[in-house]
Amino acid sequence: MLLGIQTLTAQKDYKLWLQYNKVTNSKILNEYQSAIKGIHAFGKSETIAIANKELQQGLSGLLGHEINSSTNENTTNTLVLGTVNQLSTVLQQNTKKETASINNEGFVIKTIQSGNKKQILITAKTDTGVLYGVFHFLKLLQTNQSIENLAITDSPRINIRMLNHWDNLDRTVERGYAGFSLWNWQKLPEFIDQRYIDYARANASIGINGTVINNVNANALILTPQYLEKVEALAKVFRPYGIKVYLTARFSAPIEIGKLKTADPYDVEVQKWWKDKAAEIYARIPDFGGFLVKANSEGQPGPQNYGRNHVDGANMLADAVAPFGGIVMWRAFVYSEHDADDRAKQAYSEFVPYDGKFRDNVIVQVKNGAIDFQPREPFHPMFGAMPKTPLMMEFQVTQEYLGFSTHLVYLPKLYQEVLESDTYSKGKGSTVAKIIDGSLDNHKITGIAGVANIGNDLNWTGHPFAQANWYGFGRLAWNPYEDSKTIAEDWLRMTFSNEEKFIKPVKEMMLESREAVVNYMTPLGLHHIMDTGHHYGPGPWVSNLSRPEWNPTYYHKADKNGIGFDRSSTGSNATAQYAPEVAKMFDNTATCPEKDLLWFHHLSWDYKLKNGETLWNSLALKYQEGVNQVAAMNTTWNTMGNYVDEVPFKEVQMLLNIQHKEAKWWRDACLLYFQQYSGKELPKGVEKPTQTLSYFKSLKFPFAPGN
Ligand code: BDP
Asked: Which terminus of the chain is less hemmed in, N or C, by CB atoms within 10 Å?
């Protein structure tokens, strides 16, 4: 019996936000039932068939009965779908204005009334657009909105909306906390796991249209015929869902699998090797997206091994894929142990001089912050600094530095903070969102990538709430101006329940969760003080790693005089990499937002914050606040048992308990450690640590996942 329940729950968790539960509000249900009696699909493509099937499946769940999928197009209360060019002339005429306003992946959903006949039309310029429209329509029902008089036009603002899987060929996932890789290389190409199809469907439902299926720390074998055959099989599965496959390219592949003596981008043989390789890939996968490259970063090979630079490397690959319409995404995540300058400055210093020098089909992929996916980072100074080069955003959806898949952290809140940041590159209002959607500098290629948090766990993402991060990433990739609040609410309604008594408190809990993790891990601008290697738990004391910038002590610089990294004009002068307005704001302690204070300034323990408290007291109180916030999340969740199935309810409960325990661990370990330097008592309101600093230092996690 119990086994039965568990299997059922696992199936539900597996369905993600596409639950399609029967609408419980009878008034709304009535409205839907009378408005939709049948479906008529124009067109016969695989994508239209998928869209049609999705509607049938979704509607039969939501409405509680089967819907006829071959109704005559002229019948009233029919849901009509198809691309513009397939529609009847009347319908075409009727939506001319709307369809003119959408782009190739956009869609129109419109109520059409003539006489006694009322229909809902879902149309687009492409089949994929129709599929997106169908998912959007189903979302309206899943979130109980009225479909009385629909007039929706929507288009994605960013062209390339992709996941980056850091999946290795042995199926381990770098920084993956939800099991092993989805890709079963050994059984591919013949065996198509249902999971590949479900993966594509889930991505299509949020508009994701690209996937890099292998790790940025690349293995050249992926480019051999043995593996390309398997990649081809995956591409075939993803294609009707509007998803293109991309691969990471190991720069030294010409040597490793091509038997050449060099990978020098100036070498004609090398150039030819890549051209041939591109031709070979495109022969198999005509819509192959292109390459993602991590070069001369953290030990990966690259053009600099041959005395060339990033432009030389990127352009060589760009030339190889250009004849086929492919692109190269060249990562800017570079820093060197041989460069004594502040790590936060290095990517900017290296890349900005190359502005305008890359080929048209190169896009530079930049992480949201200048260090590395921390709970909070100021936006990367490269955004706004390279107007002649398209820059794409790289967010991390997997929680490498944010508690793995154990802690509940709603990441769209973080993404939104970055996207809304004003770079001032062309005056006030030059937000990061406007840079990556190409609107500020008029770029044609635009992109956004999320490092996936997906593995073969039954629920895909490990933590049930981590599904919201995948979902929310997709939504913001489609529209980087959306409010993370709306996204959280939609996700909750689609995944769990439409009950207000559930939505309101749980949404609040999600929205608060990001600030909570900042508070109990790295308040007031602290960063990279996680334990080393695996990055789980606190390790502010670590100082023995070979590369200075891998040590937490490099980042917090705590000493008797104070704490924080001086990146102001009196320090590393990283502030100068921002536009003057922003630089000035960060540079001055009086105007620097307190949330970023220790990112930019080294301040004495007695420094007074705006609340009148000393820095030491404020820091301690922030750590305590983080713990309290998690306690409150626990309290909220404990009253939600009626709205969630038993198993996920208990799972989240157990996970929140761990999170609470670990928030205290973070607070106690960090405060005990910093107290050695501040020499001050903990302020009132901060709980006394229950363990010693040496106990916290002794904790080791040799088999931490994802490492
Ligand atoms: C860091 C990860 C490392 C990745 C690297 C990257 O610790 O595993 O390879 O980023 O983005 O966050 O290349």
From this structure: N
Active-site entry in 31, 298, 420, 581: 298
With residue 77 as reference, give the H or E element that holds it: none
Q: Is 173 in the pocket of ligand 1 (CB under 6 A)?
A: no
Q: How many CB atoms lie within 10 A of CB 441?
A: 17
Taking only the tens place, the pLDDT of each residue in 646-702 is 999 999 999 999 999 999 999 999 999 999 999 999 999 999 999 999 999 999 999
Q: Name which of 620, 700, 603, 706 is nearest 666 in CA terms.
A: 620
Q: What is the DSSP letter of 37?
A: S
Distance 359 CA to ligand 1 centre (A): 26
Domain that holds residue 32: 16-154
Pocket of ligand 1, candidates 175, 214, 330: which has the most ligand atoms within 8 Å of its Cβ, to mutate?
A: 175
From the number of C-beta atoms within 10 Å of its C-beta (0-12, 13-18, 19+), residue 201 rates as: buried
Dihedrals φ, ψ of 351, to 5°?
-90, -35
The rounded distance, in Å, linking the Cα atoms of 326 and 322 is 5
**pLDDT tens sequence across 568-626:** 999 999 999 999 999 999 999 999 999 999 999 999 999 999 999 999 999 999 999 99
What span, in angstroms and rounded, lies between the C-alpha atoms of 539 and 535?
8
**Could you tell me if 368 and 394 are in contact, meaning their C-beta atoms sit under 8 angstroms apart?**
yes
Per residue in 62-97, pLDDT (tens digit) is 999 999 888 888 899 999 999 999 999 999 999 999
**Distances, alpha carbon 489 to alpha carbons 410, 453, 483, 508, 589, in Å:** 12, 21, 10, 10, 37
Task: Report which of 464, 469, 432 is spatially closest to residue 453, judged by C-alpha positions.
Answer: 469
Tokens of 429: 């209002």
Which atom of ligand 1 is closest in space to residue 297's alpha carbon?
13
Whether ligand 1 lies within 6 angstroms of the CB of 373 is answered as yes
Side-chain half-sphere of 46: how many Cα atoms within 13 Å?
A: 9
187: amino acid identity, one letter = K
Q: Report if residue 588 sits inside a domain.
A: no
The answer to whether residue 572 sits within a structural domain is no
Q: Are residues 60 and 98 in the same domain?
A: yes
Omega of the bond leading into 189 within 30 degrees of 0 (cis):
yes
Coil/strand/helix, residue 228: helix
Question: How far apart are the CA of 34 and the centre of ligand 1, in A?
Answer: 52
- Measured in degrees and rounded to the nearest 5, phi and psi for residue 113 equal -125, 130
What would the DSSP string read from start to end of 257-275?
A: TT--S---TT-HHHHHHHH
CATH number of the structural domain spanning residue 238: 3.20.20.80
Can 372 be counted among the known catalytic residues? yes
* Residue-level length of the chain: 707
CATH code of 688's domain = 3.90.1330.10
- The CA-atom distances, in angstroms, between 328 and each of 285, 317, 390 are 16, 7, 11
pTM, full prediction: 0.98
What is the DSSP code string of 614-630? BHHHHHHHHHHHHHHHH
Structural contact between residues 448 and 506, judged by C-beta atoms closer than 8 angstroms: no
Does residue 338 contact residue 546 with C-beta atoms inside 8 Å?
no
Distance 667 CA to ligand 1 centre (A): 26
Whether residue 667 lies inside any domain: the answer is yes
pLDDT digits (tens, 9 = 90+) for 136-187: 999 999 999 999 999 999 999 999 999 999 999 999 999 999 999 999 999 9
